[in-house]
Write a structure and sequence with these properties.
The complex is a heterodimer of chains A (366) and B (331). With 366 residues, chain A is mainly alpha-helical. Chain A has 16 helices and five strands. The chains are: A mainly alpha (366), B mainly alpha (331). At the A-B interface, helix 1 of A face helix 2 and helix 13 of B.
Chain lengths: 366, 331
């Protein structure tokens, strides 16, 4: 008798529900537990508003009222054009019309509108539900801080951009070296660097001489200054000294690493600058034994550095010497040197040199 | 002093006052139970404020509210009938209460034809309903009234047949007599009769799932559409008084009234408190089932409602009479 069981089941459901605790929350006495991003009321961060009117136009209920006036801002420099800007006179949201869709908040390009979880603002007079600017600003103090980022999520765009910029900072000295190189007058001897490094450079150089472009040198140098983390060695002498000084092993290792890295960088930069001026050229010579020293004591640790730069050598400084002659077409060397001398960064100097060259070329054509 | 206590007038006054007291309190208790039980069946709390403790005074507050409301009589209404109708549907239940025993010798007036009287008088209630429906000059009210009349005609038959079956076993029409004669094996023998009597009572009271005549969602409370204020409150009171009276009848006829284990263990003068407790417990239990059904089942359609009675309950009740007759002869 299926009908009968259904009737009994219905009775058991209602009786069971009666036995369980009711889910009702006695609201005015017990405050509700709201989700953290509850859409209670819209807050206005007045300072951010530029009176672009996007919120007002996108509002499906047309419940946002904005009044503003234009103000002329005196020009900063004499003779410049005066600017105008909008000043907010009135910003009101009629919450008796608002349907809490949040489009105004979504659409605001200046982060001037926010959701606040406050919801207890009922009024006896419907007109009171139109919240004016000051009241909307008050709600701002109830806006919760933005939610934490998902730890497993992708990094925000800003962080990604910053981390990409890091290598440039690292190779700043490299650029400096390059500048010196290009400024250097006569090409002197090839670097008196470790034999292994020199040998590694050898096979690469012919290919490099084919590449005419000068600016490529800059890019190549960037790559030069990078080294894989696992290839970083330890300066045994510094490490030992640090340990002897009583530093913990971790600190000693770090110090040793940084010392090794310093030497490695110097060395590689010198290789890049094939025609370095006399004084820098001597530096590697003196440094060389220091570099050699670690492999003698700890060959295993030191093995990577000579190999690491090897594949990157091609764009090295040997071509740079040539590109002053061959790849010249695009850069006015004098202007470039001047700019460098004036302390401008390499990129800017290069750009100036280029424009100078173009000017000259035009003149020549004329 | 004793002259006054023994006088007929005093006794009459006392009986009337007692009936009035029960009539005005027990239905309110049932109403409050409906508020709370139905709320919890729907996972709500029901009234929580009136009176302070779990809204115990909600119905009192409702009564005061109804008193303050405007008493509207429609222009086209048959005014005299319209105004009289609530009283006609409420008072019969009070008159039935007179014959329902609460304990041994604790009855306002024991009649030899108690059950017959009770059934006859409680049927007057539907006349009040018809009066309200007809005089309201409202098509919804009229629809409700006609549906109610049709329902009463249909369900009165199984009700009377099942009552007759119990009377056959007891050999008396007096409610006190039936309870005195009552024995536990009546329960299995009269189980079908109990079920039919209960269902038919629900239909008589227009209680869900047999509330087609008042169906608020389709004919706007039927005969009560045009009523406001106190008159509407009287109709509502009639509904709860009806529940109490029908539950009292079921208790007396089928469940042995005040009888239960050790009902006569405690005695204070002529009064047995446990017996009164049994009666009240049974009445409230049946009232609870009435509420429970309301919270559980959807409304029957008009044709289903009639079919259920004529094709289901009436043959079953005839069978019950047959079985009871057999039992009486064998016994």
């Amino acid at each position: 008798m299926p009908g009968g069981t259904g009737l009994l089941k219905g009775l058991s459901v209602t009786l069971g529900t009666m036995m369980r605790r009711s889910v009702t929350k006695q609201y005015p006495d017990v405050k509700p537990e709201l989700a953290p991003r509850t859409r209670g009321v819209i807050a206005l961060f007045e300072e951010n508003c530029t009176v672009c009117m996007l919120c007002s136009r996108e509002c499906p209920d047309w419940c946002i009222y904005i009044d503003s006036h234009k103000e002329t801002v005196a020009p900063k420099e004499p003779g410049a054009r005066a600017r105008t800007r909008n000043l907010l006179d009135r910003f009101a949201i009629d919450f008796s019309l608002c349907m809490y869709c949040g489009i105004c908040i979504e659409v605001c390009p200046f982060d001037a509108l926010f959701w606040s979880p406050e919801f207890e603002y009922s009024e006896y007079d419907v007109r009171e539900l139109t919240h004016e600017m000051d009241r909307l600003r008050e709600w701002m103090y109830t806006v919760p801080p933005p939610p934490a980022l998902d730890p497993d999520g992708e990094d925000p765009a800003e962080v990604v951009a910053a981390s990409k910029a890091e290598p440039i900072l690292v190779e700043a000295p490299a650029l400096l070296g390059g500048e010196i190189a290009s400024a250097g007058a006569p090409a002197i001897s090839p670097p008196s660097a470790p034999a292994a490094v020199a040998a590694a450079q050898e096979p690469a150089s012919p290919g490099v001489s084919d590449t005419p472009a000068g600016p490529a040198g800059g890019g190549a140098k960037r790559e030069h200054a990078e080294i894989a983390k696992e290839d970083v060695g330890i300066d045994q002498a510094v490490f030992d000294a640090s340990l002897a000084a009583g530093d913990p092993e971790r600190v000693a290792r770090a110090k040793g690493k940084s010392a090794w890295m310093k030497v490695w960088k110097k060395e590689n930069l010198l290789h890049d600058e094939a025609p370095p001026p006399a004084p820098p050229a001597e530096a590697p010579a003196t440094e060389a034994p220091a570099v050699e020293a670690p492999p003698a004591t700890a060959p295993a640790v030191d093995a990577p550095p000579p190999e690491a730069p090897a594949p990157e050598a091609p764009a090295g400084e040997t071509p740079a010497a040539e590109h002053v002659d061959v790849g010249e077409p695009q850069i006015d060397q004098a202007t470039y040197d001047e700019a460098i001398a004036a302390g401008l960064p390499d990129r800017v100097a290069r750009a100036k040199a280029k424009s100078a060259w173009v000017k000259k070329a035009r003149k020549g054509q004329a | 002093m004793s002259d006054i206590l023994d006088s007929f007038a005093f006794e009459l006054t006392l009986r009337i006052v007692c009936v009035l007291l029960v009539f005005l309190t027990v239905p309110l208790v049932v109403g409050q139970m409906e508020h709370k039980a139905m709320a919890h069946m729907q996972s709500r709390l029901g009234p929580m404020y009136a009176g302070g403790f779990h809204g115990w005074a909600q119905l009192v507050a409702d009564g005061i509210k109804f008193l303050q409301k405007e008493d509207v009589v429609p222009t086209n209404a048959d005014k005299w009938v319209f105004k009289l109708a609530p009283a006609v549907s409420l008072l019969p239940y009070m008159f039935v209460l007179v014959v329902i025993p609460v304990g041994p010798d604790l009855v306002s007036q024991d009649l030899d034809i108690g059950l017959f009287y009770a059934l006859a008088v409680s049927s007057i209630g539907v006349i009040g309903m018809l009066m309200a429906a007809w005089s309201s000059a409202n098509k919804f009210s009229l629809l409700g009234g006609i549906r109610g009349a049709a329902q009463l005609i249909a369900y009165e038959l199984p009700l009377v047949l099942c009552a007759a079956s119990a009377v056959m076993l007891a050999g008396t029409l007096s409610l006190t007599g039936i309870i005195t004669e009552w024995e536990w094996w009546w329960l299995p023998v009269q189980a079908v009769g109990l079920f039919i009597f209960f269902v038919a009572s629900l239909a008589e009271l227009n209680r869900p799932p047999f509330d087609m005549p008042i169906a608020d969602s389709e004919i706007i409370f039927g005969h009560m559409t045009e009523y406001t204020g106190l008159r509407f409150a009287l109709f509502l009171l009639a509904e709860y008084a009806g529940i109490v009276v029908q539950a009292g009848l079921i208790t007396a006829v089928f469940l042995g009234g005040w009888r239960g284990p050790f009902w006569d263990a405690v005695q204070i003068g002529d009064v047995y408190p446990l017996a009164i407790g049994y009666t009240l417990a049974k009445v409230l239990a049946i009232s609870f089932v009435v509420i429970w059904l309301r919270a559980t089942y959807p409304r029957l359609r008009e044709d289903q409602l009639q079919k259920f009675c004529w094709k289901g309950l009436i043959p079953l009740s005839l069978l019950q009479v047959l079985v009871t007759g057999f039992v009486v002869v064998v016994k």
